[in-house]
Amino acid sequence: QFSPFAALTGYEEAIYETGRLTEEKTELGEEEKAILDRKQRLLLEKLDELPSLTVTYFVPDEKKSGGAYIRKAGNLKKINPSERWMLLTDGTKIPLDDVMSIESKLFCYVF
Protein backbone atom coordinates (compact mmCIF):
# COMPACT_ATOMS: atom_id res chain seq x y z
CA GLN A 1 0.00 0.00 0.00
CA PHE A 2 2.83 2.46 0.81
CA SER A 3 5.33 1.24 -1.82
CA PRO A 4 4.84 4.27 -4.15
CA PHE A 5 6.35 6.47 -1.44
CA ALA A 6 9.51 4.34 -1.25
CA ALA A 7 10.83 6.13 -4.35
CA LEU A 8 10.98 9.33 -2.31
CA THR A 9 13.45 7.89 0.20
CA GLY A 10 16.28 10.38 0.55
CA TYR A 11 14.36 13.14 -1.23
CA GLU A 12 14.07 15.28 1.91
CA GLU A 13 17.80 14.92 2.58
CA ALA A 14 18.61 15.88 -1.01
CA ILE A 15 16.46 19.00 -0.76
CA TYR A 16 18.14 19.97 2.52
CA GLU A 17 21.62 19.42 1.08
CA THR A 18 20.86 21.53 -2.00
CA GLY A 19 19.59 24.40 0.14
CA ARG A 20 22.43 24.30 2.66
CA LEU A 21 24.74 27.28 2.21
CA THR A 22 28.53 27.17 2.28
CA GLU A 23 31.13 29.93 2.19
CA GLU A 24 34.18 30.24 0.00
CA LYS A 25 37.57 30.34 1.71
CA THR A 26 38.97 33.86 1.89
CA GLU A 27 42.61 34.27 0.92
CA LEU A 28 44.58 36.48 3.30
CA GLY A 29 46.74 39.32 2.05
CA GLU A 30 50.48 39.49 2.69
CA GLU A 31 50.10 41.86 5.64
CA GLU A 32 47.48 39.65 7.29
CA LYS A 33 49.70 36.58 6.79
CA ALA A 34 52.64 38.43 8.37
CA ILE A 35 50.56 39.34 11.42
CA LEU A 36 49.42 35.71 11.82
CA ASP A 37 53.04 34.53 11.55
CA ARG A 38 54.12 36.95 14.31
CA LYS A 39 51.23 35.79 16.51
CA GLN A 40 52.18 32.15 15.96
CA ARG A 41 55.81 32.85 16.89
CA LEU A 42 54.70 34.57 20.10
CA LEU A 43 52.43 31.63 20.92
CA LEU A 44 55.35 29.24 20.33
CA GLU A 45 57.39 31.16 22.92
CA LYS A 46 54.56 30.79 25.47
CA LEU A 47 53.58 27.15 24.82
CA ASP A 48 54.67 26.04 28.29
CA GLU A 49 51.90 28.30 29.69
CA LEU A 50 49.19 26.64 27.52
CA PRO A 51 48.00 30.08 26.37
CA SER A 52 44.30 30.78 26.06
CA LEU A 53 43.18 31.82 22.59
CA THR A 54 40.34 31.99 20.11
CA VAL A 55 40.96 30.80 16.57
CA THR A 56 38.78 31.44 13.54
CA TYR A 57 39.49 28.91 10.82
CA PHE A 58 37.99 27.47 7.63
CA VAL A 59 36.61 23.93 7.57
CA PRO A 60 35.96 22.57 4.05
CA ASP A 61 32.54 21.01 3.51
CA GLU A 62 32.62 17.25 3.00
CA LYS A 63 29.71 17.16 0.54
CA LYS A 64 29.92 20.31 -1.60
CA SER A 65 32.32 23.09 -2.56
CA GLY A 66 33.11 25.72 0.01
CA GLY A 67 32.82 25.27 3.74
CA ALA A 68 32.30 27.22 6.94
CA TYR A 69 34.32 29.39 9.28
CA ILE A 70 34.52 28.02 12.81
CA ARG A 71 35.41 30.06 15.87
CA LYS A 72 37.01 27.91 18.57
CA ALA A 73 38.17 28.98 22.02
CA GLY A 74 40.62 26.92 24.02
CA ASN A 75 44.19 26.54 25.19
CA LEU A 76 47.07 25.93 22.85
CA LYS A 77 49.02 22.73 23.45
CA LYS A 78 51.34 22.60 20.44
CA ILE A 79 52.22 24.26 17.13
CA ASN A 80 54.03 22.31 14.43
CA PRO A 81 55.34 24.92 11.95
CA SER A 82 56.89 22.38 9.58
CA GLU A 83 53.71 20.29 9.24
CA ARG A 84 51.58 23.48 9.48
CA TRP A 85 49.09 22.68 12.28
CA MET A 86 48.21 23.71 15.82
CA LEU A 87 46.77 21.49 18.53
CA LEU A 88 44.48 22.64 21.33
CA THR A 89 44.38 20.94 24.71
CA ASP A 90 40.95 19.45 23.88
CA GLY A 91 42.49 17.57 20.93
CA THR A 92 41.30 19.90 18.16
CA LYS A 93 43.91 19.94 15.37
CA ILE A 94 43.73 23.03 13.16
CA PRO A 95 45.64 23.39 9.88
CA LEU A 96 47.60 26.66 9.98
CA ASP A 97 46.80 27.33 6.33
CA ASP A 98 43.10 27.46 7.21
CA VAL A 99 43.48 29.94 10.10
CA MET A 100 41.85 33.31 9.44
CA SER A 101 42.55 34.95 12.81
CA ILE A 102 43.95 34.28 16.27
CA GLU A 103 42.96 36.27 19.34
CA SER A 104 44.63 36.06 22.73
CA LYS A 105 45.33 38.26 25.74
CA LEU A 106 49.02 37.73 24.89
CA PHE A 107 48.57 40.06 21.92
CA CYS A 108 47.08 43.01 23.85
CA TYR A 109 50.32 44.92 24.09
CA VAL A 110 52.02 43.63 20.96
CA PHE A 111 49.45 44.06 18.18
What does this structure look like?
- This protein has helices at residues 11-19, 30-45; strands spanning 52-60, 67-80, 85-88, 93-95, 99-103.
- With 111 residues, it is an alpha+beta fold.
- Strands 4-3-2-1-5 form a five-stranded antiparallel beta sheet, covered by helices on one side.
- The longest helix is centred in the middle third of the chain and has 16 residues, at 30-45.
- The protein starts with 10 loop residues before the first helix and ends in an 8-residue tail after the last strand.
Order of helices and strands: HHEEEEE
Fraction of residues in helices?
Answer: 10-25%
Alpha-carbon distance between the two ends: 69 Å
Instruction: Output the radius of gyration.
Output: 20 Å
Instruction: Give the count of helical stretches.
Output: 2
Query: What form results from the Cα inertia axes?
Result: elongated
Give the strand content. Answer: 25-35%
Jot down its keywords.
five-stranded antiparallel beta sheet, alpha+beta, 111 residues, 2 helices, single chain, 23% helix, 32% strand
Give a concise summary.
With 111 residues, the protein is an alpha+beta fold. It has helices at 11-19, 30-45, and strands at 52-60, 67-80, 85-88, 93-95, 99-103.
Element layout with pairings:
Elements: H1 11-19, H2 30-45, E1 52-60, E2 67-80, E3 85-88, E4 93-95, E5 99-103
Antiparallel strand pairs: 1-2, 1-5, 2-3, 3-4
